[in-house]
Amino acid sequence: MTARAPGALDLGKLFAARLHAARARPYLATALFALRPVESRQVPTMAVDRYWRCYVFPAFVDRTALEELAAVWVHEVAHLLRDHHGRGDRVARERGLTGPAERLRMNIAADCEINDDVYGDGLVCPEDAVTPQKLGVPAGWLMEDYLRHVRLGPPLDRLGWLDCGSGADGLERAWELGPDGAHGLSEQERDAVRFRVAQGIRGAPGSAPQSWRRWAEEVFHPPQPWRQLLGSTLRSAVCAPGAGEDYHQGRPARRSAGVPKVVLPSLRRRPPRVCVVVDTSGSVSDAELGSALLEVAAICRALGGRRDLVSVLSCDAAARTVQPLCRAEGIELTGGGGTDLRTGFARALRTRPDVVVVLTDGQTPWPEARPACRTVVGLFSRAGGSYDENDPDHRPDEPPAWARVVTIGSGPG
Amino acid sequence: MTASALPVLPQLDVAETLLTLLRDSTTEPRADIQLEALTLAVAADLPVLLWGEPGIGKTAALTQLAAALDLPLTTVIASVHEPSDFSGLPVVGDDPAVQGVPMAPPDWAVRLVRAGRGLLFLDELSTAPPAVQAALLRLVLERRIGALRLPAGVRIVAAANPRSSAADGWELSPPLANRFVHLQWVHDHDVVVRGLGGTWPRAALPRLDAERLPEAVDFARRAVCAFLQARPGLVHRLPSGESRRGGAWPSPRSWEATLRLIAFATAAGSSRDVLSLLVRGTVGDGPGLELLASLDRMDLPDPESLLADPAGAVLPERGDLRQAALDGVVAAVRGRPERARWDAAWALLVRAMETGAPDVVVVPATTLASLRREDWEVPAAVERLAGVVSLSRRADEAARRSVRTAGARR
């Protein structure tokens, strides 16, 4: 490297640190190399903007050890990969947060999300990194959760200098180059970089820690809110042709009288019968059942308008009696043993429903053949699968392909 | 004359003046990639489905689009029609056994056919009963209304509410979803606020450049074929899982649509952001992003031409692309190892180090060094890579120190 003027940015040290970071975290190499360093005397340390520029204060590079600089590189790129600026904007809008103090809280919360597991394994943790431990909250949360617990005040006063740029909290700074400045990445380019990183992590999942794997799974397919998904699935099953309201030319419409010779169809409404089969075996918790059942009952009532068409059946190893939903206030769910939903299906089909809704954790045998009605399965998610001490290799059957499956309890509800 | 005796009409005139004042707004130019994508898809004669909450300006966008394409706009609110309005009303004649029962089309369809051209906007698809939706889909896909066939000059755009907010259970089955270009329509907060203040955006819509057409077709074919050659698994993949139902997914049909859209976007000189909306709306997010990433790679300079002229080589500015280009050069040397090519690659690495960040050169340099044959002498240019070597050594030392620090803390 050539000799540099005093006070100028030590690019050699900065790039050596980036190389160390890329070697320690190979799955982040694409993102690290896509960052463009920009010398700036207005940032306290290092900061990023949403266009993937990395602002660096020369004196910070001089006084910081190379291995710590590498950790800062990874930290800053994590802000961008995890879309902290977009999420910060959304949170600010949803919760009505304005002003620089709120953005500082967001920056601290975002730092916690990154710092709780990004270091170690070849990367040192900078001395002054903000961690959940220092705030006295559990690790492993998301930025939005930490934000509820970050209070500005005496313990955090010394963090007033903390500033990771608009890439960390969404607030544009005066010293940033902005959307029209040189070497910014367009939205499509940013997506492409994030996509390549996510693909790399999914391709070699063993090398990345849990939180990065979770990020890679969800970055382009965030988990669906299950309530809405269950609702729309049920609605589409109930409203599909043949089950609900539709046109028939069997009987001419009333307006036919006005247009002689033209055959007009008429609208006929035939509310669907819905039978809800509830898995009441010991493995499904009461809270889970309660929340899901409320949704189903609400949807069915809204659809049919006639509660006598909705019935509920609780089922463990044996199917219990079918109860009409007229007595909605007190649906009695009995059971608690093992599960065999086949008896539940058989019992439900005897009521000749148009739609069967099954709420279960899936640890049951399924009917062999497709039943003669539409089937919606609300599946309580079980991380890690089930475990049977007599048969540790046992895996429960997947819900059959003919059923429409909504996973309940995963993602924001 | 007393106030109470004033005629009513002047009051309404005053109201009219007030309304005119309220309507009075100006426009300002503003890039709108949603509208640009919609324009390209309509120009490419692919059925478009706009997904968006009600009341966010889909109709306003369509009005602007119709004006830009110089097409008369026909809006049909699907939810207030009956299926026979789209499949044709059976009219019983004198002798049905001999003459058959003709299916009479509605008046707007007759007018559209007579005009020969137009933009047909099928609004509120999602609130129509299932039988109406079924009849509409025949109209969109086969372009038939009763006994009439819509002429080629008619372009069709449909709009639907997202599944989560649809009042009824509207959703597309995978075969139908595969035929549409799905565009998510979202409102821009700034645009709405500025518009209500009296200044609405005016988007400059893309114009196809007649001179670039052959080049655009060639580019689109190369892009899609090269990608599918490398990823055969993505040629056809049915959507799995409830959350992805009703959206775009890859199949030979949607890849053909993608090819067409790439050609249109190229001929119009549109940005990658516009192309990203179109491609992801046609084959889905995952395959679409992969295709776009492969387009980025296509933009990289050809390794062979880099090797042919290392002194005049122009390398990408962005670090990750630059490293990919250098990796490509090293891979080319590995594929056909010759002394001259090896030397040229070193010259390229030196050039890369002198024109950009040195850390991206480290991995290609290490790989290139390992390709050396015994009788090849190290070229003089390598000395100029001393900076890279020391950089690599500093990173190594830092890695050792990090391990020691971690050990000490444990």
TrEMBL record, chain A:
Domain spans labelled Putative metallopeptidase: 15-268
Region (Disordered): 384-403
InterPro entries according to UniProt: Put_metallopeptidase_dom, VWA-like_dom, vWFA_dom_sf
Pfam families to which the protein is assigned, alphabetical: DUF2201 (PF09967), DUF2201_N (PF13203)
Stored Gene3D superfamilies: von Willebrand factor, type A domain
Domain VWA-like intervals: 274-383
Protein name as annotated: VWA-like domain-containing protein
Gene source species: Streptomyces camelliae
Automatic annotation (TrEMBL), chain B:
UniProt cross-references to SUPFAM superfamilies, sorted A to Z: P-loop containing nucleoside triphosphate hydrolases
Stored Pfam families: AAA_5 (PF07728)
InterPro entries cross-referenced by the UniProt entry: AAA+_ATPase (IPR003593), ATPase_dyneun-rel_AAA (IPR011704), CbbQ/NirQ/NorQ/GpvN (IPR050764), P-loop_NTPase (IPR027417)
Origin superkingdom: Bacteria
SMART domains, sorted: AAA
Domain AAA+ ATPase: 44-190
Name the record gives this protein: AAA family ATPase
Organism: Streptomyces camelliae
